[in-house]
Amino acid sequence: MSSGARTVAVTGGAAGIGRGAVERFVAAGDRVFVLDRDADALAALEAELGDQVTGFAVDVADRTALAACAQQVGGSLAGGPLSGLVCAAGIQRYGTVVDTPASTYDEVMAVNVGGVFFACQSFLPLIPRGGSVVVVASVQAYAAQHNVAAYSMGKGALLSLVRAMAVDHAADGIRVNAVCPGSVDTPMLRTSAAQFGGDRSTDEVVAEWGRSHPLGRVATTAEVAEVIHFLASPAAAFVTGADVKVDGGLTAQLAVILPEDGR
Ligand SMILES: NC(=O)c1ccc[n+]([C@@H]2O[C@H](COP(=O)([O-])OP(=O)(O)OC[C@H]3O[C@@H](n4cnc5c(N)ncnc54)[C@H](O)[C@@H]3O)[C@@H](O)[C@H]2O)c1
Predict the structure, then answer these.
(1) How far apart are CA 246 and CA 67, in angstroms?
(2) Mutation probe of ligand 1 site: the residue of 11, 17, 38, 209 with most atoms within 8 A of C-beta
(3) Which terminal residue of the chain has fewer beta carbons within 10 Å of its beta carbon, N or C?
């Protein structure tokens, strides 16, 4: 680790956006505690990224497990305090308010909202002045597509939680921000593409979704991780309570096509 190395915890860090964040922190020389429910993926991550990474097999919907993990992390912070928490664990489920089963609603709320709330409850006390929390929300906190009632609601709730935590912990010198990605090339996105693609290939569906973003493509995990890393760093010292879109212009664009606009 480099001399300026810090220690951070990342939920959902074994794949997708969370993994991108883990790789970015590791590249900066930081030590990273990774919480994920996929024990095999955690083991592979540790093997690949080396001893800067320590994995904990934790389901973020399990409050008791989160508290126990925070205690373990707290007890192994010999190399310096925990300077950041990134909450990236999340799931995508589909349905309108009418046809979403109660069990699916409960699952989405437990993971996507409770998983952030209780990770913060357990880990914030370990973070001293100068530290920060970054929550991965979504553009679906601002605008919905069809059939994502519970997911969209949960992402909106995260932005409210981020503002509330930013206000509560400003006096402690802890900053709290959200990133709101558009489509990002992750296992989650590819699972959705396979589910809805019909007889088209997953690559074709992902490329088509990319074209709905003004920049013409979906994001890489590294592009989102760069913003997470910035928000978690002292370079963002006066940024708190913010929600930063990383969406290739998706939410800047109105779906209006003028007659002369051939695109
Ligand atoms: N991929 C996108 O296009 C996109 C866009 C906007 C927001 N997001 C959000 O970004 C976050 C990460 O999404 P992703 O696309 O990287 O997902 P992903 O499914 O590719 O990876 C998610 C990781 O979180 C872990 N995880 C899931 N549920 C968990 C739980 N209950 N406890 C512990 N770990 C758990 C998984 O094992 C996996 O390692 C999610 O909150 C998602 O809603 C994703």
Answers:
(1) 31
(2) 17
(3) C
Q: For the domain 7-184+219-249, what is the CATH superfamily, name and number?
A: NAD(P)-binding Rossmann-like Domain (3.40.50.720)
Q: Indicate whether residue 37 lines ligand 1 (CB < 6 A).
A: yes
Separation of CA 263 and ligand 1 centre (Å): 32
* DSSP H/E element including 35: strand 31-36
CA-CA distance, 159 to 243, in Å (whole number)? 7
Count CA within 13 A, CB hemisphere, residue 116. Answer: 28
Does residue 262 surpass a pLDDT of 90? no
Calculate how far, in angstroms, residue 15's C-alpha sits from the geometric centre of ligand 1: 7
User: Span 177-198, mean pLDDT?
Assistant: 96
Q: Is 151 a catalytic residue?
A: yes
Catalytic residue among 94, 105, 142, 151: 151
Q: In whole angstroms, what is the distance from residue 30 CA to residue 84 CA?
A: 11
Q: What is the pLDDT of residues 64-81, one digit of tens each?
A: 999 999 999 999 997 789
